[in-house]
Amino acid sequence: MDIKQILENYKNGLINIEESEKLLSRPPLEDIGYACIDHNRELRTGNSEIIYGEGKNAQQILGIIKKMIEKGAKNILASRCNDEKFQVIKQVYSNAKYYSASRTITIINEEIEKIKEKLLIISAGTSDIPIAEEAQITANFLGLNVETLNDVGVAGIHRLLSKIDIIQNASCIIVIAGMEGALPSVVGGLVDVPVIAVPTSVGYGSSFGGLSALLGMLNSCASGLAVVNIDNGFGAAYLAKRILKRK
Amino acid sequence: MDIKQILENYKNGLINIEESEKLLSRPPLEDIGYACIDHNRELRTGNSEIIYGEGKNAQQILGIIKKMIEKGAKNILASRCNDEKFQVIKQVYSNAKYYSASRTITIINEEIEKIKEKLLIISAGTSDIPIAEEAQITANFLGLNVETLNDVGVAGIHRLLSKIDIIQNASCIIVIAGMEGALPSVVGGLVDVPVIAVPTSVGYGSSFGGLSALLGMLNSCASGLAVVNIDNGFGAAYLAKRILKRK
Amino acid sequence: MDIKQILENYKNGLINIEESEKLLSRPPLEDIGYACIDHNRELRTGNSEIIYGEGKNAQQILGIIKKMIEKGAKNILASRCNDEKFQVIKQVYSNAKYYSASRTITIINEEIEKIKEKLLIISAGTSDIPIAEEAQITANFLGLNVETLNDVGVAGIHRLLSKIDIIQNASCIIVIAGMEGALPSVVGGLVDVPVIAVPTSVGYGSSFGGLSALLGMLNSCASGLAVVNIDNGFGAAYLAKRILKRK
Amino acid sequence: MDIKQILENYKNGLINIEESEKLLSRPPLEDIGYACIDHNRELRTGNSEIIYGEGKNAQQILGIIKKMIEKGAKNILASRCNDEKFQVIKQVYSNAKYYSASRTITIINEEIEKIKEKLLIISAGTSDIPIAEEAQITANFLGLNVETLNDVGVAGIHRLLSKIDIIQNASCIIVIAGMEGALPSVVGGLVDVPVIAVPTSVGYGSSFGGLSALLGMLNSCASGLAVVNIDNGFGAAYLAKRILKRK
Amino acid sequence: MDIKQILENYKNGLINIEESEKLLSRPPLEDIGYACIDHNRELRTGNSEIIYGEGKNAQQILGIIKKMIEKGAKNILASRCNDEKFQVIKQVYSNAKYYSASRTITIINEEIEKIKEKLLIISAGTSDIPIAEEAQITANFLGLNVETLNDVGVAGIHRLLSKIDIIQNASCIIVIAGMEGALPSVVGGLVDVPVIAVPTSVGYGSSFGGLSALLGMLNSCASGLAVVNIDNGFGAAYLAKRILKRK
Amino acid sequence: MDIKQILENYKNGLINIEESEKLLSRPPLEDIGYACIDHNRELRTGNSEIIYGEGKNAQQILGIIKKMIEKGAKNILASRCNDEKFQVIKQVYSNAKYYSASRTITIINEEIEKIKEKLLIISAGTSDIPIAEEAQITANFLGLNVETLNDVGVAGIHRLLSKIDIIQNASCIIVIAGMEGALPSVVGGLVDVPVIAVPTSVGYGSSFGGLSALLGMLNSCASGLAVVNIDNGFGAAYLAKRILKRK
Amino acid sequence: MDIKQILENYKNGLINIEESEKLLSRPPLEDIGYACIDHNRELRTGNSEIIYGEGKNAQQILGIIKKMIEKGAKNILASRCNDEKFQVIKQVYSNAKYYSASRTITIINEEIEKIKEKLLIISAGTSDIPIAEEAQITANFLGLNVETLNDVGVAGIHRLLSKIDIIQNASCIIVIAGMEGALPSVVGGLVDVPVIAVPTSVGYGSSFGGLSALLGMLNSCASGLAVVNIDNGFGAAYLAKRILKRK
Amino acid sequence: MDIKQILENYKNGLINIEESEKLLSRPPLEDIGYACIDHNRELRTGNSEIIYGEGKNAQQILGIIKKMIEKGAKNILASRCNDEKFQVIKQVYSNAKYYSASRTITIINEEIEKIKEKLLIISAGTSDIPIAEEAQITANFLGLNVETLNDVGVAGIHRLLSKIDIIQNASCIIVIAGMEGALPSVVGGLVDVPVIAVPTSVGYGSSFGGLSALLGMLNSCASGLAVVNIDNGFGAAYLAKRILKRK
């Protein structure tokens, strides 16, 4: 309903002045900050809500969850929490589940409908798994159809290549790597679908907390990689949702 | 044709040993480096080829174009060239065209088929136009259906909002901005489709050659932005192609 | 009273040599270092004194407080302390109060007179609240008339816009944000009054301890933002005092 | 006129639907981007308009000036231009004036009214004068009452101190310095009014293009300095306007 | 066996289609990623395997060791572990040995054959010894013939010079130093053999975690130093193996 | 005694072959590394020895002390230790003394003779005192005549100026400051003697671990400051010794 | 001949005092600085001398060449020169040859003997060729047996793989790449011989003058890469000489 | 004469009110800024004045010289000028002399008295000579007794060692080096006098404009080096003056 329509409806008495004012004052930018803080409205798919747990204490998170559920949310995802916060939430919501590697909490009361297209999440090494888990749980929560290749680093590039069918069947691929961050370039050369590169802070010395992987991915010779922030598994999954569910 | 098929065909005499060997030695990673150097094979859409002109002299570029056209290429795009290089190429290919802002050369001998879905390219200010032009010409070359909002900075955010229909009709949006690089966050809050953020080196002082815009975009509170290298209009367009033509 | 006057008064016996010497030796730069160390003289408003607690132990802080109160100070603010230091101070000054988020201690023995003009403190998210609290308590202590919008991040930009009256009634606004630090630009576009931007170290990965927010604010396209150091809520409040109480 | 009023006026036939729609679609954020691009609307004081000349060619600048003057602008300021661009503009607007140190162009057709309160602009050395000039011309253009101490570096701190009356009579002070950027701390200790610190790129070696001065100012022990971007004389003047003309 | 041979053997019935396919699908890049994760295949010398322990928990490391030993590995080296992880492994493999300075675990079931050529490992100071130990144990494990000069810093450069025979008898030298990292330059000037420079994170203040040593070594005026990552004793030893066992 | 003399003396039987060899093998560079490791020979003044404690465990330090005392050292200074290490040393050397702020241990068995010229150590604030203490104890140990102004920050610049006699009587001044590091510039302007600037890691946010103070001091407009590493009180004292005891 | 021997020989009249003195004064460190300046003594192979041309004017270079040739040098290599300097040298030495891509000058009067072992130089792209040329000419000059794969980037990784025989026959490989610098990792996975990684300043935006490639190579997951300075083709060749000619 | 004395003298009629006022208004900080701008008062030795030429045009420099000479200056040094500026000055002051390497101008009308103690200036390589020249001319101008070893890099470290007498006879040593900046450590180990380390911007790639040399010198293992800004030959000479002429 655009401004003209609202005005017409108002003049015609279909809506009263309070309703008109409310509709007109709904800013077009509503989602921006909201997602920034608790990611819930922008991220809303069906009745799912997302909370960014970092820098919020257990009571604050609990409070937000309560309010959301009051307002009709069925499913909740809280990222970047910890076990201590989880224990508090668990006492109130007994079906809450905690993924310790990625420090993610979910409360699922309603089955999440999945799309058909596949999102493949590839991580380079064991140390990158926490970020891969964050991406995976977020993507599942957002209704994506996720497949993972967590051991591609352990198995060697021949394992990657031996999984070439899986890779070439994916509609979008998230590639997670630390150190030099070269894996997205390799994957980017194997497929034509969007490749989302996630640099991780895995490494030491001159990796400077993920800077080496980040710069490597931004300067990749494979054209058209999408890069997100260091360790940002959540953002990668959300970008995948934008790509795969953009209708 | 997978390995098993090749082997069968070979045993059955459908292909000889030389052909089999050639097929088997075609590495699965072929595209990686190629795209890195001249972007041509990976980028090949129909009969189109792309050359990265930076660090190649006019004769080298001309030589590559000749070889490509010999091999059947109809359309050529050479990015990051300059007027001097263009003059050399123009003498041989009279239908070559030069876009001075983005320093891009195209030779078009065959109409490029466009997809239906719209790619919107938004740039923040006049100084960002060269990068926007690089994205636009590349996207057109890759068969994307491009619309642009180059003056969104000049017109103010109300112009952006007054074009809300255009924005919300796009299937993918490239947002180009220098300085603090906040525009992608604003656009990312208005739409659910993929938003590709291109930081530019526009700015001075503590913008440190685009670092401020790059960090701003990587740390955006709008979830799920895809970030590319500073001033990388080409990469943004190529990522858009991966997203919009990923069948 | 300038040098000439002092000399005349001295010669005429209106002041004696000790008084003259004292007047003449009052260095024009007295405040600089003092504020740097314990912020007390420069910050003196009525009988209020300020101590920078970081890097001072409980006994040192207690010693300074005692000396200040001996010299007539009624009210004391000690920033960047911790609970342990507070317990020591509490034992001597039972009316001491501790604000745990910002780690600030106050001792108030005399009501602080407030000015009429409003200072609005806006913070982007829950994680930025400690810095907002430091700004708020400091500003109150300095006699400013503070209003806060701490949940503007949680409520979304529509809440910001729905509070447009509050925002446009303020005489000065402190905007506190981490990550990309874009909020000050948005607020800076809504008002003509001074906007003080405080980058925070909230974020991860390429936020590099607040660098991304700092650079974003320094390179803001909104003209005329005043930027202070990362996490410097105190400095922002003090700058607000300079602006609002500059008679 | 707020939304409710517009609605009432519309219902009462005082304004028609087109007018209502136009009024309602005027976004509250209009100024943000506008200032970012050409700084003109946000900066509008009376009939004055400002253009950011960097990255715009002479024809673009001329085109913008024409449009602005058509729309009623009397006075124009274009920052960060060069002599070549000026020559083009001069041919059309013969009363255009060029300030070569700061590369600023002005066209003044209507006297600018000045406020009473004084803005003092202090620069540390000869090399900082271009930035001081940018600040001065911008401030004059914005209707501020500017006094300058350009030779405070040459004359030594005793000249600064000998001008203590001028300094202490100012309502706001812009201090411009490169190298270590310590001057704002000294000035900040002498006065209680707002001090705006402008780091410059003057220096060599480890000054890293103004980084040393920027960090020095951000970490100043003088409480409550307002810092702007390196070499940003324009922004400092605009911030001064926000402070001094905020009613 | 190259592709042609495999094809011939297949056609001639010497190998069946499954065997042929397996041989042909063994990617030429197999080692790359593998070494990246657990360094085992690439590093395999005889029956020795190497595991990179950082970011793997005790159970994961134990699992990998078990699998390796099942597959025939006799000797195991696990780098970047800790005592806790060692205790878990010790319970299963009682002959496991722990080197606490470098946090390295070895399990040796088969004597490692040594080459004749000498690798000399020189460290500048006591604080550099953990890195030197990592290099030494790795080199021993890889079959190199290691001699060490750990006290060259303590003894002064005259001790270095008094050991000139040892130094000039080495076939390859690893030089480990923090702070300014100048030692490799000195050694590089004394010999004609390869000198591998390992910067360490030893230092404080502007050593920035080893950056000063790293930059010093990269910019050394001694021609032809080989530099590895900060604190990368393992990599230095492995590079020595490439140099000394490259036949 | 140069080489020719040694040869002559040897031939003439004034010295025997062992003595000749020893004299000839005394490397000209002996001090370099030695000071780097344990600072003892280079630093030797009378019978005093210095050990750099960082990265050495209690037993190593104890071992070095024992060896030094065996070789005739009367006095020992061990810098950058901790209380735990001190307890171990105390058990063997009951007259060992521990300075907890600077984490320095001394064992004094022989009175240290002082020079006449004064070294003044000025620190800006309470938080800089540990570095000032390290400088003071080192300087005392090296036989310098130290005076301190530790509270110059607390007392304000007027206290600095009120101590102008002390300042202008000093033969060398060490100035220790964090944050913006401007104090050495002020002191450098008051005196003609050498001023040694020690940046400290005191500060937060964009002080980046002392980088702001370091850059400020390196770019100081006061000509001829000597800068040392961040938090390097030891180095400053040693430089003072080179200046004051260079005969 | 050690000191004792020299002394004995001298006493026994086998050598006279001048000879003895000369032998004894031959400093063990002679090569260090020398190589740093003009690389000639350290680099001396047969009668070849090397001059580092950067920062030396044509007359200085000419003077050094003359002195070298006077002292018996047959062959000269001057790196980092330019055409102007070459013209000056050419007038005196007509057989001087100039390689414009790498800005290298050679004067060859005596055939350089080559070793058998092969050094392979691989460069990623056209823009890296100047650095590859510097490496190649230097290596040839030093008597190495060089083969090059300059077009491996253009030809794609399949060309690299199709040249697998060449690659696996090399005794040492220099890999030159800019941007993300991933090529050395790929090559490092294909061979067991030493791989020398040369980052180049090729790239733009966040490549920060070669920093991205440098960090990528230092953090490579391929174990045991030798890294040299950005654009340091000379150093890579010299390191190859140390590896391949280490008698 | 302190304040009390001035007051007494004034009251007793020994000085009049104007003289008293003048004496009392002479700020204690006078030198700070003055040296910062034109270095003249602080630098004043006898009748010599110094001008920092960077960022001042020829007319400005000429104007300053004129004023200085009017006020009695006999000798003038202007640093960081260029040939063009020199030509302007030469026309007025025909005895002006230009040193092109360091871009320094001197006008000498009165012989400069030299002290006895020697200042030795050592530079590592040809490219460092401009900075060495700046140090040398400045030091001569300030009345120091300068000796130089400019070719110590060219000649190799044995030349340094062969000049050990010169080195050990110096009372203060300035060591100038780029790249890794290790030379000051070597010299610092050979002498007990003050060593002033000047990093230069000589180098390429990861030398990052002198950062590598600067960090190397700040982190030197040779205790007690005095470091100045990159390329700051002037500052090094001025520091030497403070050390050698500190009455």
Characteristic key phrases:
homooctamer; 247 residues; alpha/beta; Rossmann fold; 2 domains; five-stranded parallel sheet; four-stranded mixed sheet; 13 helices; 43% helix
Description of the structure:
8 copies of one chain form a homooctamer. Chain A has 247 residues and is of the alpha/beta class. Chain A folds into 2 domains: 3-108, no CATH class; 118-246, Rossmann fold (3-Layer(aba) Sandwich), CATH 3.40.50. Chain A is built from 13 helices and 9 strands. Chain A has a 5-stranded parallel sheet with strand order 6-5-7-8-9. Chain A has a 4-stranded mixed sheet with strand order 1-2-4-3, with helices on both faces. In chain A, helix 12 links the parallel strand 8 (195-199) and strand 9. Chain A is globular, with a radius of gyration of 21 Å. In chain A, 61% of the residues are buried. At the F-H interface, helix 3, helix 11, strand 9 and helix 13 of F face helix 3, helix 11, strand 9 and helix 13 of H.
| Main sheet: strand order of chain A | 6-5-7-8-9
Shape by Cα distribution of chain A:
globular
Which range best describes the helical content of chain A: under 10%, 10-25%, 25-40%, 40-55%, 55-70% or over 70%? 40-55%
Round the Cα radius of gyration of chain A to an integer and report it. Answer: 21 Å
Q: Report the sheet-strand fraction of chain A.
A: 15-25%
Mean pLDDT of chain A: 82
Class based on secondary structure composition and strand pairing of chain A: alpha/beta
Tell me the total number of β-strands of chain A: 9
Biggest contact: F-H, 51 and 52 residues
Oligomer classification: homooctamer
Largest sheet of chain A: 5 strands, parallel
Are there runs of chain A of 5+ residues with pLDDT below 50, and where? 26-46
Total helical elements of chain A: 13
| CATH architectural category of the largest domain in chain A | 3-Layer(aba) Sandwich
Number of domains of chain A: 2
Question: Can you tell me the CATH topology of the largest domain in chain A?
Answer: Rossmann fold
Distance between the termini of chain A: 19 Å
The CATH C-level name of the largest domain in chain A is Alpha Beta
Query: Can you write the helix and strand succession of chain A as a string?
Result: HHHHEHEHEEEHEHHHEHEHEH
